[in-house]
């Protein structure tokens, strides 16, 4: 066997010390990840802190230590790589979100989510772009053209759904979770079009044809990405059902599910679609069909393995952002005028808050107009939370800022350096300060979340995923695993009262008649068609 | 959220087409991995083929297709990267092997395994190096110096334990599996020293001091690597036991186990030790202590997630080697003299077979001399299988050959080109032809493996890992999970007959008194000390 390592060792000794340096970095990074998990666990009872903030703080502290040890030369261990983030870290997080999302909640609020994600992002981007144009022109910043201003709008319109996932709790506040997170997923599709438009269209004369082109492009992207995810998910269900892998190997099933999920993301990248939308819908389909075709141990394994991968990727991102924040080179140009930098960051933070308020409250009002029952409407307290939970900016903003402002001559230009450092400041501040305040804010506004957010049936039989020993919920278990044939008076009443009931029934019939025989899945058991037993499945509104 | 992908998309459109080419490659690669899993499943009943061969053949076929499509320019999708192999693919495979290995089997045969791994590799390397020196000097190959000949010895002394894992079955032939696989792990430590010695020592005058230095170096490497693995494993057990992660989150436990396992490998790299030995022993310790401190669902998840990662990594390697084999550049220099290439490959294959025979049979004879009971001895049929199962060469040989023969002027030199292509030929031939013949050979020599290999207690309560729905064996379950308090007459007799019994008892007492209170684990239940209930745990011989 491995004369193998001899290769590594000889290479280390002969060629360079940089190889060994990268081994040192990886060691430190993995050790820090372990530390984050342990510290995060110890602080879990704390009402302020969450895992993201822990990782961010540990990252910044490590950055300080490295800065001191290296004598002020460098503070980060790995070079920030957008590929690492978009190709390896983001897919497991979004896939897991789709895999564990409460499907009913998501589809009941589908239209609201799309409105928030698409129109909201546009509004947010426009307001931020307009705001910076007004403010920055009066300040001594440097040369920024209209493309840069629009790009700043796009950069700071990108909400950080990774952080949202940590702050909001799917079981405590299902409506808010599905709205804010769903918005984040749709946000991506909008943003791809937006950024492309800013970089490719002629920005001097905007006419209706471009707007039409823009809308068409968005619709294509949204539909195509969703379809790709659904098709890949169904394909995995079909393969596993037909070959009946369970007969032989749990490992094969798990491997196939992981690979197909990743394949869906990469296929979307291949066709210039939104990989995030694709992998999200692939996760939904896989949890509805594929997951029921595999063995018991495959189910436990996939559920926890996907969650673990997502968990590690999240910590990795925040640890990384924390460490990268202190990179000395970026701060060099800013150090002679700290006032300007603080002013720019403050303006950006204020604009983010205003821009988000400018679409959350009006769109919530519109959404409420369409609802008849008062308990379905988004209350003003919930609107405040939706507004607040989307204020955090994360690694996506940083990656975009790097892309826009380091292309032409690194951070040597004053304006570019200021924008990069301001982005980092905004990300750190919003994640830590806004993040710290979110949990107390939710507790303050909604003292007992279970009852106030009961827009849809909050199923008492749904336990928290983390505390369940085996096959807990999170896995859409309210339908699939526990008592789908036990009538629940409360649920029935709630269901009968909603107009989505009809859509739900048609979808159920379609699923039973055509989808389940081909793709498997145990979502529905058709005891008495149209009976009260139909609960908790995707309702296409 | 992710204006993210916009970055990727804009980058794709602006900067280069090479980025999109890499997306295409990744898509194809992931799709091929899926295809390998499906085809491997369909062919599982086949008595000749195994998963490695399937992946290798699919890889070669894909290579042919790419070669035709690209008009003879290129046949591989990714550039062969030793880092990818040694840093990402190998650790999960070896860790999983340690995690799932039957500990009793391994430790009962510890001395034999070390003999095979250390002395065997030295003998093998010497014979191959001597052989090629004699043969190649007479042939028209080009300039190779004594360093090259010795390196060839080291390259082809490296057995491919990944392939061994696929060909031999731990449950059917536990003794053979532990011997051949254990040999492979020890082989690594020997090889690190060997390769370093070849590259750093003055090869013109070999005196006893160098030999002594060599032996000391080997002992240090072996002991230090093992200790590092054990310490990391114990640390993970201690952390999880003290913090009792199960109270809150399965995901945290699984993440911590994965990260600590990987950390042990990277730490070994950091200290220039043998990462393979370290991660192997880390796996053993984790399965003995850590695994029993976590929740039920964590156990199922880790067991299958590690196995799945290992499974995917194995397929990846073989798929890759198959694809890389057809790289046109390497074959250009050889195409004008195909006879020489065939001759070189044949000589190498013959030398590999002779060199392995030269240590397997004498060392087995020595090992048998030390054993008193006839059923403990390695029969001549088993010796033939040990000899045969170690003949396969794999990705490790290829990585080493690249390191040795592409350093000075790529494959432009005739001798280097011939050595690279010959290595590929040997790897393909040995994996496919020898691999195809292994299953039938074992069936022919040992018609009913369960009974003929019963050197140690073959526990009938141990099911195959893959077919168990939940918490199957592979996880050393003979002691930990099922009936450790049920006396089994056959087992008792076998145990009492062995001289390792005493060592076993002392280890058990030590484990009960000092280790388990600190690190957890449920390996032993001390009902009656020294009673027949002590079964199936590590016996330090």
TrEMBL record, chains A, B:
<feature type="transmembrane region" description="Helical">
    <location>
        <begin position="417"/>
        <end position="437"/>
    </location>
</feature>
<feature type="transmembrane region" description="Helical">
    <location>
        <begin position="218"/>
        <end position="240"/>
    </location>
</feature>
<dbReference type="GO" id="GO:0015386">
    <property type="term" value="F:potassium:proton antiporter activity"/>
</dbReference>
<dbReference type="GO" id="GO:0090333">
    <property type="term" value="P:regulation of stomatal closure"/>
</dbReference>
<keyword id="KW-0406">Ion transport</keyword>
<keyword id="KW-0472">Membrane</keyword>
<keyword id="KW-1133">Transmembrane helix</keyword>
<keyword id="KW-0739">Sodium transport</keyword>
<comment type="similarity">
    <text>Belongs to the monovalent cation:proton antiporter 1 (CPA1) transporter (TC 2.A.36) family.</text>
</comment>
<feature type="domain" description="Cation/H+ exchanger transmembrane">
    <location>
        <begin position="31"/>
        <end position="442"/>
    </location>
</feature>
<keyword id="KW-0813">Transport</keyword>
<dbReference type="GO" id="GO:0051453">
    <property type="term" value="P:regulation of intracellular pH"/>
</dbReference>
<protein>
    <recommendedName>
        <fullName>Sodium/hydrogen exchanger</fullName>
    </recommendedName>
</protein>
<dbReference type="Pfam" id="PF00999">
    <property type="entry name" value="Na_H_Exchanger"/>
</dbReference>
<dbReference type="InterPro" id="IPR004709">
    <property type="entry name" value="NaH_exchanger"/>
</dbReference>
<keyword id="KW-0812">Transmembrane</keyword>
<dbReference type="InterPro" id="IPR006153">
    <property type="entry name" value="Cation/H_exchanger_TM"/>
</dbReference>
<feature type="transmembrane region" description="Helical">
    <location>
        <begin position="384"/>
        <end position="405"/>
    </location>
</feature>
<feature type="transmembrane region" description="Helical">
    <location>
        <begin position="343"/>
        <end position="363"/>
    </location>
</feature>
<dbReference type="InterPro" id="IPR018422">
    <property type="entry name" value="Cation/H_exchanger_CPA1"/>
</dbReference>
<dbReference type="GO" id="GO:0005886">
    <property type="term" value="C:plasma membrane"/>
</dbReference>
<keyword id="KW-0633">Potassium transport</keyword>
<keyword id="KW-0050">Antiport</keyword>
<keyword id="KW-0915">Sodium</keyword>
<keyword id="KW-0630">Potassium</keyword>
<feature type="transmembrane region" description="Helical">
    <location>
        <begin position="20"/>
        <end position="40"/>
    </location>
</feature>
<feature type="transmembrane region" description="Helical">
    <location>
        <begin position="52"/>
        <end position="71"/>
    </location>
</feature>
<feature type="transmembrane region" description="Helical">
    <location>
        <begin position="106"/>
        <end position="129"/>
    </location>
</feature>
<feature type="transmembrane region" description="Helical">
    <location>
        <begin position="77"/>
        <end position="99"/>
    </location>
</feature>
<feature type="transmembrane region" description="Helical">
    <location>
        <begin position="304"/>
        <end position="323"/>
    </location>
</feature>
<dbReference type="GO" id="GO:0098719">
    <property type="term" value="P:sodium ion import across plasma membrane"/>
</dbReference>
<dbReference type="GO" id="GO:0015385">
    <property type="term" value="F:sodium:proton antiporter activity"/>
</dbReference>
């Amino acid at each position: 066997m491995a004369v193998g390592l001899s290769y590594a060792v000889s290479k280390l000794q002969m060629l360079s010390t940089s190889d060994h340096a990268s081994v040192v970095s990886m060691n430190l990074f993995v050790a820090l990840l372990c530390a984050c998990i342990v510290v995060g666990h110890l602080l879990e009872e704390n009402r302020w802190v969450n895992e993201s903030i822990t990782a961010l703080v540990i990252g910044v502290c490590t950055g300080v230590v490295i800065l001191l040890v290296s004598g002020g030369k460098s503070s980060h261990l790995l070079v920030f790589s957008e590929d690492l983030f978009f190709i390896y870290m983001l897919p497991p997080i979004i896939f897991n979100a789709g895999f564990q999302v409460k499907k009913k909640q998501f589809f009941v609020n589908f239209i609201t989510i799309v409105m928030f994600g698409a129109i909201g992002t546009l509004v947010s981007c426009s307001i931020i772009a307009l705001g910076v144009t007004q403010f920055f022109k009066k300040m001594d910043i440097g040369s920024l053209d209209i493309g840069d201003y629009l790009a700043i709008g796009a950069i700071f319109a990108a909400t950080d759904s990774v952080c949202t996932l940590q702050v909001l709790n799917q079981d405590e506040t299902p409506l808010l979770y599905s709205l804010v997170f769903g918005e984040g997923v749709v946000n991506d599709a909008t943003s791809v079009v937006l950024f492309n438009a800013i970089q490719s269209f002629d920005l001097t004369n905007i006419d209706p044809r471009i707007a039409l082109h823009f809308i068409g492009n968005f619709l294509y992207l949204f539909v195509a990405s969703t379809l790709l995810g659904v098709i890949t998910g169904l394909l995995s269900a079909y393969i596993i059902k037909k070959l009946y892998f369970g007969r032989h190997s749990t490992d094969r099933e798990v491997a196939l599910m992981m690979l197909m999920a990743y394949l869906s993301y990469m296929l979307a990248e291949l066709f210039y679609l939104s990989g995030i939308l694709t992998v999200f819908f692939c996760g939904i389909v896989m949890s509805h069909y594929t997951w029921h075709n595999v063995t018991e141990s495959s189910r436990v394994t996939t559920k926890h393995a996907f969650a673990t991968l997502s968990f590690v990727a999240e910590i990795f991102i925040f640890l990384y952002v924390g460490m990268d924040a202190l990179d000395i080179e970026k701060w060099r140009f800013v150090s002679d005028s700290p006032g300007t930098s603080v002013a720019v960051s403050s303006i950006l933070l204020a604009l983010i808050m205003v821009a988000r308020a400018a679409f959350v409250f009006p769109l919530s009002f519109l959404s409420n107009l369409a609802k008849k029952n008062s308990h379905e409407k988004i209350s003003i307290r919930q609107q405040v939370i939706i507004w607040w939970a989307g204020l955090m900016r994360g690694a996506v903003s940083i990656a975009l800022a790097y892309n826009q402002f380091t292309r032409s001559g690194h951070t040597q230009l004053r304006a570019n350096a200021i924008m990069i450092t301001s982005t980092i400041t905004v990300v750190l501040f919003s994640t830590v300060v806004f993040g710290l305040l979110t949990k107390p804010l939710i507790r303050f506004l909604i003292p007992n979340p279970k009852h106030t957010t009961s827009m849809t049936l909050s199923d008492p039989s749904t336990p928290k995923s983390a505390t369940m020993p085996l096959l807990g919920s999170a896995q859409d278990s309210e339908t699939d695993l526990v008592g789908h044939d036990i009538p629940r008076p409360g649920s029935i009443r709630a269901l009968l009262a909603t107009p989505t009931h009809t859509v739900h029934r048609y979808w159920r019939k379609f699923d039973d008649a055509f989808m389940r025989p081909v793709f498997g899945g145990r979502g529905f058991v058709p005891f008495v068609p149209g009976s009260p037993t139909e609960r908790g499945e995707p309702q296409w509104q």
